[in-house]
Amino acid sequence: MGSNADPGGGSSRDPGGRAPRYAAAGVDVDANTRLIPRLRALAAQAGRPEVLGSIGAFAGLFDLSGVSRPLLVASTDGVGTKLLVARALARYDTVGEDLVNHCVNDILTAGARPLFFLDYLAGAGLNEDSKVAVVEGVARACAATGTALLGGETADMPGLYRSGDFDIAGTIVGVVEKGRQIEGTTITSGDAVFALPSNGLHTNGYSLAREVLGLTADPERARALLAAHDPGLGESLGAALLRPHRCYLSVVEPFLDRCKGIAHITGGGVQENLERILPEGVCARLDPARWSIPPLFGLIQRRGAISDAEMYRVFNMGVGMIVVVAREDAEVVRRHAPEACDVGFLEPVPGSRTVEIVGIATP
Amino acid sequence: MGSNADPGGGSSRDPGGRAPRYAAAGVDVDANTRLIPRLRALAAQAGRPEVLGSIGAFAGLFDLSGVSRPLLVASTDGVGTKLLVARALARYDTVGEDLVNHCVNDILTAGARPLFFLDYLAGAGLNEDSKVAVVEGVARACAATGTALLGGETADMPGLYRSGDFDIAGTIVGVVEKGRQIEGTTITSGDAVFALPSNGLHTNGYSLAREVLGLTADPERARALLAAHDPGLGESLGAALLRPHRCYLSVVEPFLDRCKGIAHITGGGVQENLERILPEGVCARLDPARWSIPPLFGLIQRRGAISDAEMYRVFNMGVGMIVVVAREDAEVVRRHAPEACDVGFLEPVPGSRTVEIVGIATP
User: Fold this and answer.
1) CB A162 within 8 A of CB A226
2) Mutate: best of A3, A4, A6, A11, partner B, most B CBs <10 A
3) A55, A221, A271, B350: which one has the fewest Cβ atoms less than 10 Å from its Cβ?
4) Distance (Å, rounded) from C-alpha B104 to C-alpha B113?
5) Which residues touch B265 (CB under 8 Å, ≥6 apart)?
6) What's the pTM value of the predicted model, to 2 decimals?
7) A75–B58 CB contact, under 8 Å
8) Helices then strands (H, E): number in chain A?
9) pLDDT score recorded for residue B21
């Protein structure tokens, strides 16, 4: 691919040196002209043979003609205010990984494998190297998951974003063969419930975390707090907060055909996200003593004097993904994913679907 | 569809009343809980039978198994600082149309018809009704173009966006049968070049337009300037600036199979965008006297004392789309699209591809 990949689009496309008034209005067309080949080179690193390289000046083209009975599975996401932690530390190369991995996990819940990704990067006063670093993160995660970086848009929006600020979003499209999609409908009492560990907050709860950790006021102070080594964490607060959202594709793929339901634990936490995939008549009872909760969550809870119930509703609390398989398939999960914790069981509950976490009050 | 459409995702999913500290950190979870059913109802208005409604808590599913030899065509776009004009006028219901129409036009250049769309809406302190109005615009344009609104993400990001500010982006996925994609490669000298009129700036050049029109400094003054009737425009400046990006799908569809090349005129203007689809060895010579330029462009040029060359590089100058057909198909275009202007001709030019606009200096 490469030549048709178009991560620098629309408003950033105006060539340099020919638009002096545009430049004066805050759109650095020169820098954008230099940017496009660098972004295309990154997209070329995340290619697939199905991407058609000869065309696509305005759009990316992906050949799906070799797939029989395709169901397309798509998701759009952002990174939330984790961006502001990255911004405070001037670390631009990780948030793209967050974005892609979040999206890959989302479509994995339906049993889909990724085909391609498109990114949106908007901001003001972001220099060329920072933009490239953001898309580098996107391209790295795309390459690691076999996802083509098919296109994107880079927009300078002075007046909306403060200078140096930016936002990113991304869209993934994946595929699952019709009839093999995972719907959760076959989940029943007696099935096994496994949790796959998260490595931190992933991309949820950062507005709360930043506030209770004192990161929202003075940028200088925020930088100092983030940079300091924290003995309880065994690393700096910034390193713990910025760790990219884990991608579960390679973990789950070996037993994907055994999965009856998959929940990606994002905003709303374990309870709400697991509840979304349960059929009516099934109650999940999970025991948090069976999985380990990274120290970052305890730090946030203590600093904010936050109730257990709220912690479990805002944060993933150490659980990045939950997979439900038939009891007889539990061994397959354990073999392929030794880190998976058998965290509870499913019971019948007439006319309802609920998730209870032992010891945590239902808010 | 509807139940699986997920336009309110991730960070906005946390239920209300159960997260007091989260609310204090600026994420109004109560409002977001009320928002989700309203956004789902909008998505239901932009449905298609291929959307699978029973699943998709984390992603949208679209059944493509009925399409033979599909090439997927995808594009991501934003609306740029046109958003700030909408914000100044507190008009939230049009920018979603801009977004969808821009994307539909982008994939139309490859000969693709839309399948589905996903939106991203991020901001801070935007009330529920304003968010709904934004997605209403998205849904309206999706419904008008036969595009399913398959999903989306709504994110509250206090600390990144100023209160009341927001950004939107969107991704479209369309399809064209393999072998029928439009590539521009068959364009040759002697082909006919038609321009389809734009209805204003569409979504490009707003940073420059806002600056020269005095809209960037004081919000109160901007509002007054936008609201005042302008005799030269025959309407208010705000109405002229906010008019949604035209969608050319219904215009071009009747003769889509005759098109050898289609250029969507966005940032970079007629020259750069037409150049993108020309094969090597072809020069286009266009005569701007053959199409009409809406008075808004003249107003911007006078106020900013902007050169012709820069105007043509930043703005569409009245041309929203250019289609190239064989000379013998010109009559078909005229019959289906009486508004189409035959704006010039294509000549051989060894080893190069260029676009000249008669009377406009090459910058």
Assistant:
1) no
2) A11
3) B350
4) 8
5) B198, B202, B273, B274, B316, B319, B320, B321, B322
6) 0.94
7) yes
8) 13, 13
9) 76
